[in-house]
Amino acid sequence: MEMLRHEVVVARDGAEALDYLFGTGAYASRDIAMLPQVIILDLKLSKIDGLEVLRRLRAAPHTKLLPIVILTSSNEERDRLEGYGLGANSYVRKPVDFAEFVDAVRQLGLYWLLLNERPPAWRKN
User: Between 3.40.50.1370, 3.40.50.2300, 3.90.226.10, 3.30.565.40, what CATH number should domain 14-115 receive?
Assistant: First the structure.
């Protein structure tokens, strides 16, 4: 089994995710040039929902090309349409079973970190 050895940063809500990515609030001293290789985004975040996080990330020049995978329990057609419309790279439904969820996250990581070709001029951290 391929093991991923990358730092994983977990934001507790949408506001913290944006603070981290834009270097504001508690993350004001963070170097925003150090971007994640992929963002796994839930739609059902507190404070600022996932679609609004996606909207703000795509509107900012330094985050507009970040690979963003929506990983959510929602199977609503309107969520998929809006997510893709806002620029999500992928939409994956969370498995209910925890072991299946862990496997799905591992597979997503393998693809986005090892196989996916990034856009030219991508800033690597």
Answer: 3.40.50.2300
Helix axes 14-22, 50-59, angle to 10 degrees: 20
pTM given for the model: 0.83
CB 88 within 8 A of CB 23: no
Residue 70, token pair as written in the block:
């929506």
Where in the chain does DSSP place strands (E)? 39-41, 68-72, 90-93
CA dist., res. 53 & res. 109, Å (int) = 20
Query: pLDDT under 50 in the chain at which residues?
Result: 1-3, 124-125
